[in-house]
Design goal:
The complex is a heterotrimer. By secondary structure, chain B is an alpha/beta fold. Chain B has helices at about 10-20, 50-60, 85-90, 90-95, 105-125, 135-150, 165-175, 190-200, 220-230, 315-320, 335-370, 400-410, 440-455; strands spanning about 70, 130, 155-160, 180, 205-210, 235-240, 260-265, 280-285, 295-300, 305-310, 375-380, 385-390, 410, 415, 425-430. The chains are: A alpha/beta, B alpha/beta, C alpha+beta.
């Protein structure tokens, strides 16, 4: 097969500080003159800064060239196929980027009087309504900045609910071993203890396991559905009933809602709280790690615990900010949430509409299953259960050849692809987790499949190609031990480099 | 649908491979009674031009800093953003990339973050900085959590001159017994006597904002001494809500502060109705292993080439799960790139000039606004960076005055402090950045006279 | 082949203890260091002079892949942290049972070795993994 990857011209770009030359300027503004009061007249000398030591001095041309060159060292979704399971890297529509840059959405302050910002409030309200429809929940906050932030918010709501019932015994949250690492971390931070449960042999959480441990000390359970194997939890109905019957609440990690949109509404099947990741399901850019947004949706019963502020609509049709409510868990961050991220999601849902969103779900699931069927003779499928939007293979077929999952991941780079998610979920040995999303063409998916098959052969015939991969990327494999043992976390001017 | 590349023909071929004869067969693992029967309930989709029209109309309903004289800051500032910043940040290699867990093909993000970490360390005069957090408020929460890890004590003392929304966020994260607010005095700064009286064996950290929420400069040197004498194990946390003040003021690191947290919105990001901003987090190097969040470090690749990688990643929750030191899984990476570009453009001289220009405008405004002693006075004096408080005299209807100014004169007279401080019924917090001209300040004064005449 | 030292006692979490009169040395087993990979840092949560009880954690051991808490198998007072480990934690990889000990404790009570795994118990346990 012919690879699409080719080595190109790239630059060894120095640090911006190394480009600095005294006297260069990258800015322009009108000189502002003193009007009689200079800092020396006002402040004690102790509080006046001399200069910022070693700050760069660079022209605009050089700044632009520097960061343009850096950008070229990145592989973005716009560069190519990005089969990162669980991370859901879908296309980021360009029109949303333009809309998010409208002055009317940016040069506005959350402390403006509400009559100044009706348009912004309408966007927030509109997105609240859209998300409620998509999930079936009664109420929502758009405040959390990301999935993990949302998990913490949801767990605080669960805590507030039990406290309002004077039910103080409930100190545990059940978390299956297939969950994202943020679930237990958020649980601890929210003041609960984690009760881990093992998935059954088929990759599901089994109702009997939950029945055994469910009692009045359990505040709730966190379920990712479809789970991180991309599989719909088969005992879900029973589990929800067991947890509810003992007074617990069910938290849905909505990381994988993109497999369900238009097919089912989580609130209708018994979830009490759920978060969404707007970048996963609603196409907002990942940005190299953020900013994102993680709305929390709840049932009518839990509505009063939502954090503030919220946006509501008056009978006259205007929008206002709700700042006070009895029962609310409080505020999760400053101001109104990551507003321009919300604008992008709102605009995405408007453009996709009813049919577009449903079709996106169907294409994502079809593409994942197509990859599964095409590769299952070549890679070991640890769980036979039906896949939805992603598929997980294990390292069983190649572990004994001295090849590791990480080698496969790095070899994909040599073929011009982004590696899949690896070593997650933890319950699969050497997991290879593939999620194509709905954004990939059949041609690109077929290329990926061909590459995966080619690599499966290389594992047997030329394993050194995998061990040495990536071979053509800008950088080869990094010395991570050196980075961790001798941390160098910032630049210092050479002649005064301090020993950290 | 233009975002869905599969054709009908593709779908059919793929279904043959998967051995299903209808799309519904792909969803048989979902119990039948769970399936929705009448759709989501959304409208049908809009075309691109319809969408642009609709959203443009919505955005035009908002009044912006361009068409209102809004002298308002309070943690989010209307600063000039060089055009070059958006050109860089619009490069989709930056904004469509995932978290750089594959460093071989993510050096752009990683090197930018390494530069960001250096720039912020220099700006605050601190040893190390992480790859960023969500915003100023959540950075503060993380700083308090970190001080508990460092000294295993429980109670944080937080000045009431710290941004009220940051304090509200702290209140959500911690039990009431785990923090105490310290009152402010008649000079609008933290009351040090009250601070000293609250310090005890269990004090984990003392939190001071600089410049504080009222715009006043807290005496960090004095507070450092108080901590050295009374609570040597407690961490000194300083909050910077207006990062551009660092172009003029002695940075917190110079005063021996342990952790500096802040909001970086002033460094190249628009106010955007409050977000996304960027949380800044710096500390002394000795606390590295207790620091939350991600951090980029320098290393080499197999060929010995200088490279960057997320390191000390054992603090992250995907490895540590319930033992993780923080549940934050992402940073505001893209905004860290914004800040790196902005500070590179500004550079050593620019940051100083822009800070000075904020200072000059503000001093001018104080001078002009001091001409109305029969209406209000500048409450705490001139020792401010770009924000200050005015207090109205008794007998003047502040609400009416405020409403008339924006309804009739298109002037937003800052933030009424009673929104956050119940007792401050007659005080407003004003902000003057480099975007304000002396002309608009003069015009502002003229309008004040007109409105007062009508009251 | 992973090494198991005869005169040491173990836990199922792969901690070991060596009793030396009124003192005890603690560390992690050869198996544990191998599983963790290259150890980059040891973060002590106990200091000299601190009291420590059976089951309490005294440090976390970080490799580039993971971090593990290490637990005390005895009770007493911390008398020494291993400087060699603080200087370069890789010594644990190189010499888990000798130079790579992590903490030294002055015992406050006789150690009930029946609660611990003997070398042969631990070897049997390793076979089940």
């Amino acid at each position: 097969m012919k690879t699409i990857a080719k080595q190109g011209l790239k630059f060894n770009e120095p640090l911006i500080f190394e480009r600095s030359v005294v006297g260069k300027k990258g800015y322009s503004f009108k000189e502002c003159l003193s009007n009689g009061s200079d800092p020396e007249d006002i402040f004690d000398d102790l509080f006046i800064r001399d200069e910022i030591k070693d700050f760069p001095e660079v022209s605009e041309v050089e700044v632009i060239r520097h960061f343009t060159r850096l950008s070229q060292l990145n592989y973005g979704l716009d560069s190519g196929f990005y089969p990162l399971g669980s991370c859901t890297m879908k296309y980021n529509p360009k029109v949303n980027e333009d809309i998010a840059r409208f002055k009317g959405f940016n040069k506005i302050h959350p402390y403006f009087p509400e009559e100044f910002t009706q348009g912004a409030l309408e966007v927030i309200f509109g997105l609240q309504e859209q998300l409620k429809k998509i999930t079936g929940f009664e109420a929502v906050t758009l405040q959390p900045s990301a999935g993990a932030h949302a998990e913490f918010t949801g767990l605080k709501i669960i805590k507030a609910y039990h406290e309002s019932n004077h039910d103080e015994k409930r100190k545990y949250i059940i978390i299956p071993d297939s969950a994202h690492g943020t679930n237990p971390a958020s649980t601890t931070l929210a003041g609960f203890e984690v009760k881990n449960v093992k998935s059954g042999p088929d990759g599901y959480i089994e109702a009997e396991t939950i029945a055994e441990i469910m009692d009045e000390t359990i505040a709730g359970i966190m379920i990712t559905n479809p789970n991180t194997l991309g599989v719909f939890e088969q005992d879900l109905d029973k589990i929800i009933k067991i947890v509810h019957s003992k007074g617990g609440l069910v938290y849905g990690d909505g990381a994988n809602m993109n497999a369900l949109m238009g097919k089912l509404k989580p609130a209708e099947i018994g979830f009490d709280v759920m978060h969404l990741n707007l970048h996963k399901t609603f196409s907002t850019p990942h940005g190299g790690g953020g900013p994102g947004a993680g709305p929390i949706l709840v049932t009518q019963e839990l509505k009063r615990f939502l954090p503030l502020p919220l946006v509501a609509k008056t009978e006259e049709g205007s929008f206002h900010i709700v700042k006070n409510a009895i029962g609310s868990i409080g505020r999760m961050k400053s101001f109104m949430g990551n507003f321009t991220v919300l604008v992008r999601a709102y605009s995405y849902i408007l453009e996709m509409g009813e049919r577009g969103l449903t079709q996106a779900t169907e294409d994502a699931v079809l593409s994942a299953n197509y990859i599964r069927e095409s590769l299952k003779g070549h890679y070991h499928l640890p769980y036979e259960a039906e896949s939805l939007h992603e598929v997980v293979f294990s390292d069983k077929n190649f572990k004994d050849l001295g090849v590791h999952t990480i080698d496969l991941a790095k070899r994909l780079i040599d073929y011009g692809l982004h590696p899949s998610t690896v070593y997650f979920p933890l319950i699969v040995s050497g997991a290879i987790m593939i999620e194509p999303t709905e954004s990939e063409s059949k041609e690109d998916i077929d290329y990926f499949i061909d590459v995966m098959k080619t690599i499966a052969n290389e594992m047997k015939e030329t394993p050194e190609l995998l061990h040495n991969a990536p071979g053509i990327s800008y950088r080869k494999r990094l010395d991570e031990v050196k980075a961790a043992k001798h941390p160098k976390l910032r630049w210092y001017k050479l002649d005064e480099e301090t020993d950290e | 649908m233009r975002y869905l590349p599969l054709t009908e023909k593709d779908r059919k071929e793929m279904m043959i491979k998967v051995a299903v004869n209808s799309v519904d067969s792909l969803f048989t693992s979902i119990p039948q009674n769970y399936h929705i029967t009448n759709g989501i309930g959304l409208e049908e989709g809009l075309s691109e031009s319809e969408l642009l029209n609709k959203l443009e109309n919505l955005s035009n309903k908002n009044k912006t800093f361009d068409n209102v004289d809004a002298f308002i800051g309070a943690g989010l500032y209307n600063h000039y953003i060089p055009v070059a910043v958006d050109h860089i940040i619009s490069r989709s290699e930056f904004y469509t990339a995932y978290t750089p867990y594959q460093p071989e093909i993510s050096q752009g993000t990683l090197q930018s973050i390494f530069e960001f970490q250096t720039l912020i360390s220099q700006l605050f005069d601190m040893e190390i900085t992480n790859a960023s957090m969500y915003d100023g408020a959540t950075s503060l929460v993380e700083a308090i959590l970190m001080s508990k890890r460092v000294n295993r004590k429980n109670k944080a003392l937080i000045s009431s001159t710290v941004h009220p929304e940051y304090r509200e966020t702290v209140a959500t994260y911690f039990n009431q017994n785990d923090y105490t607010e310290i009152s402010y005095n008649e000079d609008g700064v933290t009351d040090v006597d009250s601070l000293i009286s609250q310090i005890d064996e269990d004090t984990t950290a003392v939190v001071i904002q600089y410049p504080n929420f009222f715009g006043n400069i807290e005496d960090l040197a004095k507070i450092r001494n108080i901590l050295n004498e009374n609570a040597p194990k407690a961490l000194f946390i300083v909050v910077i809500a207006e990062a551009l003040s660092m172009g003029l003021l002695t940075p917190p690191g110079t005063f021996g502060v342990d952790i500096v947290v802040g909001e970086g919105q002033s460094l190249g990001l628009s106010p955007s109705f409050g977000g996304p901003g960027i949380g800044l987090f710096s500390c002394k190097a000795k606390y590295l292993r207790k620091m939350p969040g991600r951090i980029a470090g320098e290393t080499v690749d197999k060929d010995g080439e200088q490279s960057f990688v997320f390191t000390i990643s054992t603090r992250e929750q995907h490895i540590r799960r319930e033992k993780a030191t923080s549940n934050i899984c992402s940073n505001h990476s893209l905004n860290a790139v914004v800040v790196a570009v902005y500070l590179s453009l500004m550079g050593k001289e620019g940051i100083k000039e822009i800070a000075l220009s904020n200072f000059y405008n503000t001093q001018y405004a104080i001078k002009i606004l001091s001409q109305f002693p029969s209406i209000f006075k500048v409450k705490y004096g001139k020792k401010v960076f770009n924000e200050f408080v005015i207090e109205f005299n008794d007998g003047i209807d502040v609400n009416l005055f405020y409403d008339k100014l924006f309804k009739e004169k298109n002037i937003l007279l800052g933030l009424p402090l009673k929104k956050f401080y119940a007792q401050e019924t007659k005080s407003l917090l004003l902000n003057f950045t480099e975007q304000v001209s002396t002309k608009s300040i003069d015009n502002f004064a003229k309008n004040i006279i007109e409105v007062i005449g009508e009251l | 082949m992973t090494e198991v030292r005869e005169e040491y006692f173990y836990s199922k979490e792969h901690d070991w203890v060596k009793i030396d009169g009124e003192f005890a040395y603690l560390g992690i087993s050869d198996y544990a260091q191998d599983e963790l990979g290259e150890i980059v840092y040891v973060d002590y949560v106990k200091d000299v002079g601190d009291e420590i009880k059976i089951g309490e954690d005294y440090a976390s051991v970080e490799s580039t892949k993971s971090t593990s808490e290490v637990f005390s198998l005895v009770s007493g007072e911390v008398v020494e942290l291993n400087e060699a480990v603080e200087d370069d934690s890789e010594v644990i990889n190189a010499s888990p049972y000798d130079n790579g000990w992590i903490i030294k404790i002055k015992l406050s009570e006789t150690v009930d070795t029946s609660q611990l795994l003997s070398a042969s118990d631990y070897e049997d346990f390793l076979k089940t993994l």
